[in-house]
Each structure stands twice: as structure tokens, then as C-alpha cells.
Known about the structure:
InterPro entries: Pantoate_hydroxy_MeTrfase, Pyrv/PenolPyrv_kinase-like_dom, Pyrv_kinase-like_dom_sf. The protein is of the alpha/beta class. It has helices spanning 5-13, 26-35, 46-49, 61-74, 93-105, 120-128, 144-147, 157-172, 185-194, 215-218, 234-237, 240-253; strands spanning 18-22, 39-42, 79-83, 110-114, 133-138, 177-181, 199-202, 210-213.
Amino acid sequence: MKVTVSTLARLKADGQKITMLTCYDASFAALMDAAGVEILLIGDSLGMVVQGHDSTLPVSLDDMIYHTRAVARGAKNALVLADLPFGSYQTSPAQAFDSSVRLMAAGAHMVKLEGGTGMADTVRFLVERGVPVCAHIGLTPQSVNVFGGYKVQGKTEEGAAVQLAAARALADAGAALVLMEAVPAALARQVTEALSVPTIGIGAGVDVDGQVLVMHDMLGAFPGKKARFVKNFMQEAGSIAGAFEAYVKAVKTGAFPGEEHSF
Ligand code: KIV
Ligand code: NA
């Protein structure tokens, strides 16, 4: 059955975990889809894991469209989520809408954008015009130069309050999902309890409604630095299809992430 925003809401209501992986081409999309991964994210992480850049900043909207088309062709049931890349949505809500239209024409069912309370107006603008939105808070990699590195966010009491307020504002604006990257597990849990829409975590502990990992990380295929929250599912599974199945099972049962993957 096709995964839709209604499916995601039902999974949260039933207390079932949502599974997401990043995906950049049709073959991997078909394998992930067959393993039951509910959401395939064409992440702008492709700038690092596919293109070899040292950040996500150089990724263009055309790059995202190319990979979104490929993933959409390979996916059968999974919801296709595409990142709005750096510079394609920050100017204005209208710019965000124009960029989202191109991603949705390429096969995306939902778009993801980075930012806190300041992006709430943009989220509302998109949702009112037919574009479902996943809001990405916490460590937002497009802002790496503002943060001065890839650092855990929301660690101080003040920082946690900023993240909680952002999550509330984005959900109130109509975001269908709120994704948190590299935040303390206790904060992610608090956000998840505060919101009626599902939350997705990466480096956000186990008490969120779903998990995401970068495909190359969970297959042990990325030669760069391995973040604390990454688990290599290929080691035990022995095959790519098996690694995707093991990931789905580990997320669904709450076996992943463990304390060792959390902040
Ligand atoms: O681009 C990406 O892969 C992402 C995930 C890390 C959430 O945004
Ligand atoms: Na991203």
C-alpha cells in the first residue's frame, strides 16, 4: 500500500515507529521499498556521499531534481521526500514554493527544509498551496558555517527551549513531520510528546516517532568520519537488502538507536 501522510499519522497514533532512509537512485529505492522502508529521503547529503563535497552547500536544485526523478522511478509504495537545497527556499515563501513545485513535478510527495521558528511562515505558505512539508531542526547542516562545525544542538537549557519553540511553531504552521538531527535524547522526547505530528530522529535518541540514517553510513560505504549516531547494518546482514531489512526491524522494535548512538 502507498505510504501517505495519513499512513504516517496512523503509525504515530498506533505507537508504531516510522522508518526513513536517504536514497539517491532507482535501484536502491527499489530495495528499500521492498524492505518496507516507509520514507525515502533524497537528502542533500548527496553533496557529500555522492558528489564528494565536504558540505551540503554546493548542491543545486537541478541536482536534487535529477536524483528525485531516479528515486521516484524505483519506489513503489514508499513516500518520496526531497530536500530543498541551500539557496532554493530561504529568499521568500514564493521562492520555496517555486522550488517545491519542481521537486514535486520530479516525483516528490513532500519536501524538507531546514530552519527554526523563522521558517514557520514559509511552511504555512507551502502547506496552504498543496506542498506537504517535513521541517528539519536541531543540527541543520546547511547552517554549518553559522554553527562553526557539525555540533549537537539544544544542549543548554536555553538551546533546548529554542528547539522546542521551533518544533511547536513549525508544527502549528502545518508541517507534516518534524525531523530532529543531533539533539539530546531527552529534548527529542520532550518535543515528541509536545507535538501531534510525527517526529523523526537522527542522533536524537529512541523516544521519537521514527528514525532516519544516511544510506552510505548504514551500509558502511562512506569513507569519511562516522558520526556517533551511525550504525553499520551491513556488517551483520551481509547483503544490502538484508541491511535494509535489519534496519527496518531494529527501528520498529526500538532496538535502534541505542544509548551509544544518542546524546
Ligand atoms: O540530507 C540528509 O541526508 C538529511 C538527513 C541527515 C536527515 O537531511
Ligand atoms: Na539534508
